[in-house]
Amino acid sequence: MLRSEEAALPECDELTVVRHYTNHSANNFGVNNGFYPLGSCTMKYNPAIDEETASLPALTALHPLQPEDTCQGALEAYYRMQQALCAITGMGAFTLNPFAGAHGELTGLMVIRSYHMERGDKQRVKVIVPDSAHGTNPASAAVCGMEVVEVKSREDGCVDVDHLRTLLDDGVAAMMMTNPNTLGLFEHDIPEIARLVHDCGGLMYYDGANLNPLLGVCRPGDMGFDVMHVNLHKTFATPHGGGGPGSGPVGVRKGLEHLLPSPRVSYDGERYHIERDEKASSVGAFLGNFTVIIKAWTWLLSMGREHLRMVGPLATLNANYVKESLKDVYRLPIDTPCMHEFVFDGLRDKSTGITTMDVAKRLLDHGYHAPTIYFPLLFHESLMVEPTESESLDTLDAFISVMRRIAEEAATDPEVVKSAPHSTPIGRVDDVLAAKNPVLTYKRLAQ
Ligand SMILES: *Cc1c(COP(=O)(O)O)cnc(C)c1O
Is residue 251 helix, strand or coil? Predict the structure, then answer.
């Protein structure tokens, strides 16, 4: 088993390694360095107190198998988070086990499948998904072994209820929706959609990754949704990006609690218990991403009921302010009030040849993270902005003036936009090559 040749490992001293990583870390971009208007991602500020709490040794030194009596405080926080999510969403019970939004979707769909199986409704395998849905929705349904059926959007960007009617039969397991939808528009027909889907025997699934604008304003449970997930790493101010730790708790309405995965934390009026149901399946190790849950719980406590109510309206106000200030130079395909985010379809003046990619790259020169681009797929030049509630008026005004300046440059000096970015450590990369032929391993240079 001994290798015959020396391993090709990098050879350098500690100081060189320290400089290498320190200099790289200075090139990182995060919410803590600048505005990060990445649509559909809710890149809000994560207050430092959340990190402080989650780093308390009393919490980080816990072992997942230690006796319940020795970690009552941690279990109480966990239990209270389950309860808070029920109160915020109008659901009957929550599991905090899933590790991401997509993982939550899969877990929720497994709950829905079990519900139909339990009733002997084995033929219910279809999951209806709007054409504007986030890609994880059809992906989760497919991974769950279900059949994806797409429902069209109307001109106004909302689900086409007439088309939906033609898709409903006794093969429908569920309809998945996010509200506000991926275009940042509030779906007004949900009560009717829920009635139609329920009448044909299906369940309503709410993709709660867009819960931010609804926080404390209205609840998916009151709109007729039966199963849902939330993204603690979006709405509940825990850091995310770069595939970092997430948490996608799943909630179900009353009557479906027994279908949730195990374990959950319960309270008997005196002590907190880890309930392990031997018959129920599990979707991850132990209780989920405990420190992420603590960050979200800290955030909720620091906001309190009263301030939580301001999140949605402020996020909505910020998005509408930016949209209205730019729609004379960027094309707004659906010109209605938006919720927490909106989508432009490139520049209004198409004659410049400047694409959404060019605009996004030029924004980097001004110290901004790029918005979400070429998503949703409904428009050719989608550029999606979500400012979140945590940005100040000054930040929004500065962003607006830079976006206007780029639109002006597109007309007067298109080359500078086409060849952007100019101020980043690496200029414009070949995205296709980087995706298709990534070089990810260390290679020793020839000596
Ligand atoms: C982010 C997002 C998801 C997926 O969440 P992950 O944690 O990235 O898996 C699902 N739906 C919508 C609408 C989202 O914005």
Answer: strand
Q: What is the pLDDT of residues 120-136, one digit of tens each?
A: 999 999 999 999 899 99
Q: Which residues line ligand 1 (CB under 6 A)?
A: 40, 100-102, 134, 136, 178, 207, 209-210, 231, 246, 248
Start-end of H helices in 274-424: 290-326, 356-365, 393-412, 414-418
Spans of the chain, pLDDT less than 50: none
Question: In whole angstroms, how large is the CA radius of gyration of the chain?
Answer: 24
Question: Which of 96, 206, 207, 377 most suits a substitution to test ligand 1, by most atoms within 8 Å of the C-beta?
Answer: 207
CA count, 13 A, side-chain hemisphere, 114: 18
pLDDT value at residue 245: 85
Ligand 1 centroid – CA 42 distance (Å): 10
Residue-level pLDDT at 377: 87
Q: Can you tell me whether residue 141 is helix, strand or coil?
A: helix
Beta strands in 72-226 (DSSP E): 93-95, 126-130, 147-151, 172-177, 203-208
Spell out a b/e string for 358-379, using b for 16 or more CB atoms within 10 Å of the CB, else e: bbbbbbbbbebbbbbbebbebb
- For 211, counting Cβ atoms within 10 Å of its Cβ (0-12 exposed, 13-18 middle, 19+ buried), the class is buried
Query: pLDDT for 11-60, tens place per residue?
Result: 889 999 999 999 988 888 889 889 999 999 999 999 999 999 999 999 99
Q: Distances from the Cα of 25 to the Cαs of 9, 101, 110, in angstroms?
A: 22, 27, 40
How far is ligand 1, taken at its centre, from the CA of residue 2, in Å?
Answer: 46
CB 131: neighbour CB atoms within 10 A? 16
Nearest to 321, CA basis, from 345, 337, 343: 337
pTM: 0.92
Angle between helical axes of 393-412 and 356-365 (0-180°, round to 10): 120
Please tell me the distance from the alpha carbon of residue 52 to that of residue 218, in angstroms, as a whole number.
31
